Amino acid sequence: MSALNTIAAAGEPMPPLLPHADELIIGTIAFAIVFFFLAKKLLPNIKKVLEERREAIEGGIEKADAARTEAESVLEQYKAQLAEARHEAARLRQEATEQGAVIVQEMRAEGQRQREEIIAAGHAQVEADRKAAAAVLRQDVGQLASDLASKLVGEALEDRDRQSRTIDRFLDELETGTVARAEVVR
């Protein structure tokens, strides 16, 4: 303050940037009151809000970490279930392939059995038809031979039993001779 007093005593005008001593004292007291008010009332509230905000952020981070951990756990469970499902699908596919092969084999065996039955039935039918044709042919040949013999002799051969025996004997000899010639040719 002595610099101000010397300037004022010298009669020089006060520099415009230097405040008066009264203003300086009042400004300091006002600053102290505002600082005291801010320090006692506003600063604790600001600290409290900042602390709550910090706790909320830390709580959010902890919750996010917990959620991330839980998500990783669920992901691992999902991966394990997916691997198990794939393994089960492969097993079912293998079983289906094996069952399909068994069914195909059974169907082939059944087809073969049916084929053999059809062939056997066909052979039996052919044999029956051959015998029936031979019997009809034998009868027709016998009848024709009898008619021819009657015409050659000039009289009718009336005894049917005798005629039938003669024709059967002739055809039997004919068949035996044909079979014997066939065996010789072979």
CA-to-CA gap between the ends? 159 Å
Largest sheet: none
% residues in beta strands: under 5%
Number of strands: 0
- The residue-averaged pLDDT reads 82
Parts with pLDDT < 50 across at least 5 consecutive residues: none
One letter per element, helices H and strands E, the order comes to: HHH
| Number of helical regions | 3
Tell me the radius of gyration: 66 Å
Q: Would you tell me the structural class of the helices and strands?
A: mainly alpha
**Globular, elongated, flat, extended or rod-shaped: what is the shape?**
rod-shaped
What helical percentage do the residues reach?
over 70%
Summary tags:
3 helices; 186 residues; rod-shaped; mainly alpha; 90% helix; 0% strand
What does this structure look like?
The structure is a single chain. The chain is mostly helical. It has a domain at 18-120. Helix content is 90%, strand content 0%. The chain has helices at residues 2-10, 21-153, 160-185. Helix 2 crosses helix 3. The longest helix is centred in the middle third of the chain and has 133 residues, at 21-153. The protein starts with a helix and ends with a helix. 0% of the residues are buried.
How are the secondary structure elements laid out?
Elements: H1 2-10, H2 21-153, H3 160-185
Helix pairs in contact: 2-3
Summarize the entry for a quick read.
Helix content is 90%, strand content 0%. It has 186 residues and is an all-alpha fold.
